[in-house]
Amino acid sequence: MTHKVFRRFVAIGDSLTEGLGDERFHWDRQHAGWADRLAAILHESSASEGVALRYANLAVRSRKIEQVMTTQLAQALHLKPDLVTVMAGGNNLWNSDVDWARLGELYRNGISRLRDSGATVLVANSINPVHVRAFSSGRARAARMTEMIEAVAAEMGCGVIDLYRNELLHDVRAWARDRVHFGVGAHSSVANAAAGTLKLTKRILMPESEVLSDARHSTRDLAAWMARDVTPYFVRVARGTTAGDRVVAKRPRLSPIDNHPWSIIDTVSLPAVGTTLSESTPVSESTPLAFGG
Question: How confident is the model over 226-260, as pLDDT tens digits?
Fold first, then answer.
């Protein structure tokens, strides 16, 4: 993919793209999550070229590929974007009876429609749920989902945000307390990975303290997780409801993101701004500064 200057960016997907897990989400849903961070990077990159970026985020929690590649995709096309990101499939991992042929056709047709519109399309493969032992039942499906998404991306000429092989996401400390949404540092890491895939030079600047949170392997922490997150999930399953039933998109229309809260640096000028990491530098708890991806 060659570097482009974008004017209209639309993100579609589920709770990861909506921004859940980001601490900001509780008081500022408009500026939370990896896609909002990527929009901020794009804003800064476009502004340096004298172009104003507008951004919409149509993602809603609990949505599966079936909803993302139909309803959300139609809404996205209506906005005539020149860049679309697609992060979907995480909510399909927990169905033991996945019809892979049907799902693959639906995904391929959706990406084809986006590409036919003239938009640059950036897709994310599946998370690899190795960070929690209880999620082991989804690991084989995650591998197959990644294979499916990457095959479509290769066919359609789309860039891929590699979640599956992102080692930061293999550590439970990179995740929010619910263990199913990116933590603050992971949201920044994914945004920076997306920026790298788009050949942009700007990155979210992230203190080391945001990369990994406190260890979460204690019996007390596990019990709290079961009561706070696992039990309510199974209650919703039993009732046939989802966490996103009454939720609407947080940014349904294209709008500026020039009041974003993040610090952004340009990797071209890294030697002038102090200690930093290259994108290949492993992130550890002793690293003084990080901008993952």
Answer: 677 666 666 666 777 777 777 899 999 999 998 89
CATH number among 3.40.630.30, 3.40.50.1110, 3.40.50.1820, 3.40.190.80, domain 8-213+248-290 = 3.40.50.1110
Neighbour tally for 51: CB within 10 Å: 13
Q: What residues form DSSP beta bridges with 178?
A: none
Ramachandran assignment for 233, one of left (phi > 0), alpha (psi -120 to 50 degrees), beta (any other)? alpha
User: Are 122 and 162 contacting, i.e. CB atoms less than 8 angstroms apart?
Assistant: no
Please give the Cα distance from 233 to 226 (Å, whole number): 10
95-119 pLDDT, tens digit per residue, is 888 999 999 999 999 999 999 999 9
Q: How many residues does the chain have?
A: 293
